[in-house]
Structures are given as structure tokens and as C-alpha cells.
Amino acid sequence: MELSGWAGSLYRLCEWVMRLAYVNLLWVVFTLAGLIVFGAMPATLAMFAVARRWVMGDGDVPVFPLFWKVYQAEFKRANGLGLLFGAFGFFLYVDLIYFETFFSHGLVFQVGYCFFLALSILFFLTLMFALPYFAHFQDGMLRSLYSSFLLAMSHPVCVLRMLAGTLAIYYIVWYLPGLQLFFSASALSVWLMWNAMKVFDTVAMKE
Questions:
Q1: So where are the chain's domains?
Q2: CA-based end-to-end distance of the chain
Q3: Helix, strand or coil, per DSSP, at residue 51
Q4: What letters, b where the CB count within 10 A reaches 16 and e where it falls short, cover 75-93?
């Protein structure tokens, strides 16, 4: 018999808490299983695949079989994406440090710093869409990144909502560090996936 009223709401809340905690623990375990460097991106993509099914209304999806299937199938693709993100992020970081160090040395360094700062912001916004996009579509890497960039630029309201939720989750786990092991990554994946799916559905309806 399905519970109703406050009892039903409490039951569903507890159920979601357990789901998020379980997926977050899977993400930690499989990230460590890949020695962090090789496990982080496959585990993250697998986590987003689970979040995608939840957002689409399939709350009873077998979590571990889906997580393991995506982790194995997307291991190389996810690590390729991680390598690309890591290389570009490192490039931006080095340039920002360089131009910041010599910021007071003239207009060229100030313009350079502002340029790479803007590029870093665009990179971060693209990244928020890229992981949900990779979990939802089967496009090639470059096409996925290009599409993620276009989606981020053309849906500023959704981007702001994503940023607000990301900052809220970061704030909560920062001041309640005991939650990091259980909810930090999984809660963020569900939030980003939920917002991204709204954009994907909107674009699909227009097309």
C-alpha cells in the first residue's frame, strides 16, 4: 500500500536520500578503483547516466548494473574527455597565473588576463552542460563540446540556475563536511542533469 500525506512525503524523501548516498559511494569507490586519474571521469559519466534515468522518471532503475555498464563501456571515451578537459583547464590556469603575475606591467598583460578570465568562465559554463550532454547523446567528442557551448550560451537563465544550485550544494557540503562522502557529487549530478534535460527537451520540441 502506497503511503500518502506527510508519511508518504517523508518516505519518498528518505528514499531519495538513500539513492543519492548510494550513487555517491559508487562514484567514490569506482574513482578510487581507477586510481583516481583513470577512474574519475568514467565514474562521473556513469553517475550522470544514473541521474539521467532518474530525471526521466525511472526511479526504479537498477543502479549498480547501469553504473557498471556505463563505467565499462565509456571508460576510454570518458578518459579522453577528461584528458581534453584537464589539458585545456591547465592551459587556462597557467595563462591566468602568468598574466595575473604581470598584470601591473601594462595594458597588454591586463587585456591578456581579462581575455583568459573570460575564456575560463566560458569553459566552466560549457563543462556544466558537457557532462549531461555526454550522458544523454552519443555524439563525437568535439561535436558534443561544441553543442554544449552553444547550449550554455543560448540558455542564460538555465545557466544561472545551474550556477545557483552548484554554489548552494558547495556551500552546504563545505560547512557540513560529513555530507561530502554521501551527497556532494550525486546531488550535483542530479541538479545539473535535471536542468540540462529541460534544455534538451526544449530544443527537441523546437526542432
A1: 5-206
A2: 42
A3: helix
A4: bebbbebbeebeebeeebe
Backbone angles phi, psi at 77, to 5 degrees: -60, -45
The answer to whether 43 and 34 are in contact (CB under 8 A) is: yes
What is d(CA 64, CA 70) in angstroms, rounded to the nearest whole number?
Answer: 10
Per DSSP, the three-state class of 4 is coil
* C-alpha cell recorded at residue 102: 604581470
DSSP 8-state secondary structure symbol assigned to residue 102: T
**Predicted local confidence at residue 42, as pLDDT:** 95
SS3 105: helix
5-61, pLDDT tens digit by residue?
666 677 777 888 899 999 999 999 999 998 888 999 999 999 999 999 999 988 888
Alpha helices in the chain (DSSP H): 5-33, 40-55, 63-73, 75-101, 107-136, 141-154, 156-175, 180-206
Q: What angle do CA 160, 150, 139 make, to 5 degrees?
A: 120
Question: Would the CA dihedral through 98, 100, 106, 108 be positive or negative?
Answer: positive
CA-CA distance, 108 to 102, in Å (whole number)?
Answer: 10
Entry pTM? 0.90
Q: What integer is the mean pLDDT of 123-137? A: 90
